[in-house]
Design the sequence.
């Protein structure tokens, strides 16, 4: 799952859906955002993060997770059919979500796409090839960027594919740094086709084996992911002011983590990719000096 920071304590998230001690490499809704955008952005992320936690956290049976996700889908259905009037009796998060959607004319499809991806995570643990994985990213990550572009009044045909590249790239960065954690949950997001090509086995992942085959595999994935992020990066210059600076920092964070994965010899099993104090300085410097796209 893609991971973002948002101050949930202000959003009345249902108790059963509260996030559990997340470390997030890609902060959003920071002070860089204009004040009028912070609450809508926080509400979108609270919806996504809390629904994601239903799938990822605790020892709840799959059927119970599906039932909890169904509550989120019912809330979207209520917003679609009745607006604020349809939210009576539902948790406060959903009332806030309804106001955010209605006040900002947000489309509902991206929210449904997110729920489809979270539902998929309950049952699907392997991805055959990169196209299969990219389709998951299209629903698990790209909807966030598309919703934010609507909030920013920047959802143009030129900007949407660039946003998709950034969101997919960030999702992939999370996959590569979290291989060990995902394995504990029974998931492998590395495409099976790529594992076979580089002769990396699931047993090797289970044993945290960072040999030449693993290094070649992750080097391939890192190179592809960096190209995807760089393809979307010009969006950070097309969005003006503080919004653009926020996006530059997020893209720079993703690129920094890819550099970190390379620097540790692709051994994401033994080394953390957490962005510490000096890493944050490097990210800020990178954001300041990222080359502008040519006219």
Sequence:
């Amino acid at each position: 799952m893609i991971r973002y920071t948002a101050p949930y304590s202000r959003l009345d998230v249902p108790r059963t859906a509260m996030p559990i001690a997340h470390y997030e490499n890609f902060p959003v809704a920071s002070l860089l955002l204009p004040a009028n955008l912070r609450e809508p952005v926080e509400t979108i992320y609270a919806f996504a993060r809390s629904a994601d936690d239903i799938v990822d956290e605790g020892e709840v049976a799959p059927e119970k997770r599906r039932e909890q996700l169904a509550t989120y889908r019912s809330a979207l259905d209520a917003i679609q059919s009745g607006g604020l009037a349809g939210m009576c009796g539902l948790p406060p998060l959903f009332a806030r979500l309804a106001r955010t959607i209605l006040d900002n004319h947000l489309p509902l499809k991206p929210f449904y796409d997110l729920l489809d991806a979270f539902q998929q995570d309950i049952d699907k643990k392997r991805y055959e090839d990169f196209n299969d994985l990219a389709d998951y990213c299209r629903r698990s990550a790209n909807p966030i960027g598309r919703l934010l572009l609507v909030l920013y009044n920047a959802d143009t045909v030129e900007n949407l594919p660039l946003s998709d590249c950034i969101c997919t790239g960030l999702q992939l960065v999370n996959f590569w740094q979290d291989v060990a954690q995902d394995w504990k949950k029974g998931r492998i997001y590395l495409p099976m086709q790529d594992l076979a090509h580089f002769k990396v086995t699931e047993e090797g992942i289970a044993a945290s084996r960072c040999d030449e085959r693993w290094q070649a595999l992750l080097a391939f994935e890192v190179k592809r992911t960096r190209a995807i992020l760089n393809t979307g990066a010009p969006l950070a210059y097309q969005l003006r002011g503080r919004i653009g600076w926020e996006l530059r920092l997020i893209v720079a964070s993703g690129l920094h983590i890819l550099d970190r994965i390379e620097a540790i010899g692709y051994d994401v099993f033994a080394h953390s990719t957490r962005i510490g104090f000096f890493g944050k300085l490097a990210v800020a410097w990178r954001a300041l000096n990222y080359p502008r796209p040519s006219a």
